Amino acid sequence: MPNPPxxxxxxxxxxxxxxxxxxxxxxxxxxxEATASIAMGxxxxxxxxxxxxxxxxxSVRHEQKEISKGTVVFVxxxxxxPQVPEDEMPRLVAINGASILYGAAxxxxxxxxxxxSNRLVTLPSISFHDAKLAQVPSAGTSxxxxxxxxxxxM
Length: 154
Description:
The chain is α+β, with helices and mostly antiparallel strands. The protein has one helix at about 90-115, and strands spanning about 5-20, 30-40, 50-60, 65-80, 135, 150.
């Protein structure tokens, strides 16, 4: 029997989606800028169950003019194996969880933008490996506000 995964996505969903196509032109494929931020924390009833919220904001420019923009917020619920030491869980969730959700966000934006007046928008790759972790105030969830963590502007 194979070993259980050390980190597993239980479910994910979109909590916010905004997309605007401002002007109809063929965009420069290198004119896409994106930022990502995360907020996360463990469930108070089960500290090996984590909630991570990823916010991705993007802008598409053509000849110095913004032609498309948008925001997508994905929420993921993750389980961390008991084999992972407690002090390693925040970094594991931040890097792996954000990477999984960013892939989903990239696909969602590509899918929606392909149906807009401009061509398909492919967000640039982002690495969450160098994420800066810091505590932030509670958002009033069942996840421990004392351990909520955020990183911004990848």
